[in-house]
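To make this tangible, we now present a fold written out as tokens:
***
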Amino acid sequence: MADRTAPNCHLRLEWVYGYRGHQCRNNLYYTAAKEIVYFVAGVGVVYNTREHKQKFYLGHNDDIISLALHPERVLVATGQVGKEPYICVWDSYTVQTVSILKDIHTHGIACLAFDLEGQCLVSVGLDSKNMICVWDWRRGKVLATAPGHTDRIFDISWDLYQPSKLVSCGVKHIKFWSLCGNALTPRRGVFGKTGDLQTILCLACARDEVTYSGALNGDIYVWKGINLVRTVQGAHGSGIFSMNACEEGFATGGRDGCVRLWDLNFKPITVIDLRETDQGYKGLSVRSVCWRGDHILVGTQDSEIFEVVVHERNKPFLIMQGHCEGELWALAVHPTKPLAMTGSDDRSVRIWSLIDHALIARCNMEEPIRCAAVSTDGIHLALGMKDGSFTVLRVRDMTEVVHIKDRKEAIHELKYSSDGAHLAVGCNDNSVDIYGVVQRYKKVGECIGSTSFITHMDWSTDSKYLQTNDGGGKRYFYKMPSGKEVTNKEEIKLVQWSTWTCVLGPEVNGIWPKYSDINDINSVDANFANQILVTADDYGLVKLFRYPCLKKGAKFRKYLGHSAHITNARWSYDYQWVITIGGADHSVFQWKFVPERKSKEALHIAPQETLAESNSEESDSDQSDVPEMDSEIEQETQLSYRRQVYKDDLPQLKEQCKEKHRASTTKKREKAPGNSIRLHFIHGYRGYDCRSNLFYTQTGEIVYHVAAVGVVYNRQQNTQRFYLGHNDDILCLAIHPLKDYVATGQVGRDSSIHIWETEMLKPLSVLKGYHQYGVCAVDFSADGKRLASVGLDDNHTIVLWDWRKGEKLSAIRGSKDKIFVIKINPYIPDKLVTAGIKHIKFWHKTGGGLIGRKGNMGKTETMMCAVYGWTEEMVFSGTSTGDICIWRDMYLIKTVKAHDGPVFSMHALEKGFVTGGKDGVVALWDDTFERCLKTYAIKRAVLAPGSKGLLLEDNPSIRAISLGHGHILVGTKNGEILEVDKSGPITLLVQGHMEGEVWGLATHPHLPICATVSDDKTLRIWDLSPSHCMLAVRKLKKGGRCCSFSPDGKALAVGLNDGSFIIVNADTLEDLVSFHHRKDVISDIRFSPGAGKYLVVASCDGFADIYNVMSSKRVGVCRGSQSYITHMDWDRRGKLLQINTGAKEQLFFEAPRGKQQIIPATEVEKIDWYSWTGVLGPVCEGIWPLVSEVTDVTAASLTNDKKVLATGDDFGYVKLFKYPVKGKFAKCKRYVAHSTHVTNVRWTHDDALLVTVGGSDTSLIIWTHENEGHREPRQCDSEESDIESEDDGGYDSDVTRENEMNYTIKALSASIRTMSGIKPHLQQKELSVDERQGVVRGSRPPVSRALPQPEKLQTNNVGKKKRPIEDLVLELVFGYRGNDCRNNVHYLNDGADIIYHTASVGIVFNLASASQSFYMEHTEDILCLTINQHPKFPNVVATGQVILQTCQLLPPPFMSGTP
């Protein structure tokens, strides 16, 4: 069987030919080290011209289109296109990422600029509003955003002489921005009469509010403030694309091919016309200039970079060139020399030297070139053209040998036979022509058989066969040179192929994903010597596979760099390099091939390579060679935490139900009871799907979680205190390094993380807004300032928080597979590790993003836990197979076998580690994992006498371990918390049910004990007195859903899920009798009152059987229910049964025969019921909530004094109602502790306690009942009922009116003072024809592979006459807004002035002079006003306005400016 792992060799990017000049400007600079930085495709390039070396920045995943250099000239910012584009700030020395800025822009990032200090970065998006965003780039934080303009912005720059001022320019506009607080406010430049309104392409700021800008017609416009003061006409012959400011002055470059230098006052110094130099040509267009000292860098439209030395300006050096715009498809390599030939739609064919990394020959053809081939002797170069012709050139001097045109459609592939005698030419009209080389390329054969265009061809080694692939995904074979098709499979099997470039065939099956029928792989080339295959695809990925790879979905290594589709890939003649060419990015990449033996040595080379390596991830394909998954982990990965309805949805649901409610509010709603309950004790610990969620606090208490509650347990007093801030299942818990704060994450649609302190149980911070569905892992940093969290969304998003401020620092998609653990490096808080299904990843924070690298481990393992060790680069992780992996940085050093089965938990000590696994063993290790110092097996035999329960089995799976106070704390999958003494004895502290829903619950008729039965196949007896422990447990053959004590408390009946039931001795739990009459789940079971003569057993098939307990015989059956039975109750005489069903029927039957009775509602109330657990009937009408379609009331229980009814529902609420609950939607007190369904509730015999069980949260919760007179000393956990009724005293009429005001509608009713128009003298001219074809044509470059932009709105052209417009000045405002505002008049300046507001104006009224002054920056009605009382900030006022939602507002010029 062929090896299915990814190959061990790899590629390293060695050289990139080309420069991105088209559709980009200002993207070429000198760094501080005098290297040149620019970009091509998706790669940032740092080129050292002296040593002729390149370094690459590979942090982008799509085309880069913008670049800015930090003022210190070491750091570079680059922006890319794409659906979710981001900005990378990186170091040009180390080419490592410093910061990633994301989540604001869409489509792409058009311009970037650093401010003078280099603290802030501004970016402009390619979205329809051209958003401008200012970043604190080191922290990855957005400082301000604003819509930039309705049309494209071409350049943006900080004013280097005035802080917080920016200038942007673009299609027919220039804007001057000021940054104040987190707002960017623009003022439009006034062209006035000085110059025509036109498109501004570039700008540079100078002293004294002067701005120079380059216009589309070649003029330079000079601005002072926001006004155009003069123009430098004809500075260039046409559009000025680039302007660069330096110490000496300014350099400009234009479409006319000239570079001009100007002094600091914009007086001309010199002009350099590149078209007139030796290297120049007609049509040369300058896109970027950079002037540094006596050197000038020039980047051109056609991908060249020139370097000009000022005193020899007529001799520019051409230091980089590439293909011009147009797709690049043709690639061939020389058979005996390190040369590559490329041909493109720019009609040029170029020969590149792979050793010198230079262009050595270039020849322009008549037609666009689509393919190339070199004859086997290296003498001829054949080129296939787009028009159906092909040309053969001599390689040595590029002279033409022949030009033949036999076809009308493009030639897509041509190949010389291995003996050099024939040339096969494949055309898009489905044919292949064979030409004889020696007969001066006479046509000697033709292959017709294909039904689609020809894409790939290969000759056999003996030149007798040709195989072809076509666009229809078919493979054909032909006899050569005649062209006769070969269909005999056996004949083909014997053929040896001299090359393999076809994408179809058994040898290359593995390059295709398992279930794909798409043809997105453009090129393949096999390296027979090393048995490696290289492929190039439409996603810009170069991949290495083993050759042959026979099975679909083979493993690979992948490399990014090209942005869009890669059209071709070839090995060099000696297999040292791979050459790949990009279609749209028309760049040529040269990759060095590093064979297997060298790969190992290459692990510790320069940082450059590790970065390149970080992009060569293992494949994402299906991992069929992974060992079978452990059953427990398998189970856990199947768990879904998604809910049909979340508690977050309740408000919306209630809104929808409000109408229904209003109709029914004619009756007065029942009041809530005076009684209340208080959370007292919880039996349970969430161990079945959580790990490492159990810790000692500072004071030696124990903190953990179960259901929706954070629990702090005092083991000396056996008491618990609770954090009740969550409203759904808590899934993870982490403790602050000082052990006094805890972070917990929960399930929810927009799930939250709470940080709370363990002493007062108060929340310190709640973090929301970034995780969907739930938070599955959290961790504090060693200094306690940061928190990392992982979400349950499909990408398992990782977020790093400054939790005190509630600020997100960074976020990134973590992994497609589930993540089990996240840890922050204790030495460097910018580093993290995550581990989970089939991966471990090492991350470091870069601004607003994180960069992750997969741990390199050969085979893929699932990691269950991870900790940092004794130095910053050491990480230890536990695998699902029981090994401990020891990592340095991201490299696996060694593995140690630690447990049988998965290692679920691990804790680092000062000297050593402690681990726990599925095998139920706790192991102590030395600090290198070389010696296991001690093991503790968790066994029943070593349980200490003070335990609060019983171990269910020996060696339970260990899920959490923590150390402190001389003990080891252990949490198990079975829901037990144990304390292991270092000397051996084990104390059980807390216990609950295991995984599976808990439904069955019964309280004893006269003792403080209760029984529970669960799907985990156990029946348990709990002590409800202060000792709070499990008294007895028995394993059952099946899970159970109900249980009931006999009236004397001696027997206990249990209904099981297979339709059988048993009666056991309540003390010993031994069987007394068992029956099996039904097939469906037994849903409820009840002894009759008094002597307990009868037992009624209800099942989900809709029958209730009545048994005589004494004679053990079935004496009656209650038939007639249309659905499963949910609840049953006896009357006090033991003669009548009440039954509730799933169809919401309330039925009555006579015992013992089971005859159905019809009883009117009025009579039902008069009957003296022995118990009431039903949820139907008029006496319970009010317990059903407003949203009862979505949620069911699952259980109810009435106190013995018949005053209070407790209910449990599907939302996890426990509610108390005053009984009887007549009338709809009664008021209640409601409590949260359970997460989802509360499956059962029961009062104890003396009504002192309420016991509730939660379905899947497996917990048993005990509440103390507090009577009406009892005032609670602590805050009440209950919330009042769902609907705040208007009939409780209501509002004052004024308040009611104000409450109903709707400001949005007011603002939208055709605002008179609309701000969207443009003053006549600022209106735009129509475009002239040549302007339309000029820059405006390219104003939205087709760079983004994202959604198309919305069409722009045309502003109509009004009035040609320009009349000056007089300004009006506001003098006096009558009025004050008091009709719907409060507290909006204040004294200022020690009572000299008063301040108030009306309309959209803030007014300061001077009492002495009776004059008014105005703040007029608001655009709509002001609604509120306050003044800062602090002496440090005298006279600072804040006002808030309503917002107009229809149009985007800009203050008109006469109203802006800072007050």
